[in-house]
Design a protein that fits this description.
The protein has three helices and five strands, in the order ββαββαβα. By secondary structure, the chain is α+β, with helices and mostly antiparallel strands.
């Protein structure tokens, strides 16, 4: 399995890895993030990809595990959009 750092500098800004997952799943998450206004990028073992390379996916390009990253400043928004945050769960129950 490919190892991706948890925190990286990309284009001069700190980005954090949400997860390492198969390319197809990562591209689905990217669409969800984009619809919510969160910028994301995937990192393959070969390169960074800011756009969804549909032609690469359709032609059987690299479909293995990728790192899915968001800017650190947008991490809270990204977690909410993907339903990965635990904050507030059950807080109002009593």
């Amino acid at each position: 399995m490919t190892h991706f750092e948890d925190r990286v500098l990309y284009q001069g800004d700190p980005w954090v890895r949400l997860d390492t997952l198969p390319r197809l799943l990562a591209e689905g998450w990217r669409r969800t993030l984009s619809a919510g206004g969160v910028v994301s990028v995937v990192r393959t073992p070969f390169q960074w990809s800011m756009g969804s390379p549909v032609i690469e996916i359709e032609t059987g390009g690299y479909m293995g595990d990728v790192g899915l990253y968001v800017p650190e400043v947008q991490l809270p928004e990204a977690l909410v959009l993907l339903g990965l945050n635990d904050e507030g769960d059950g807080a109002d129950e009593g």
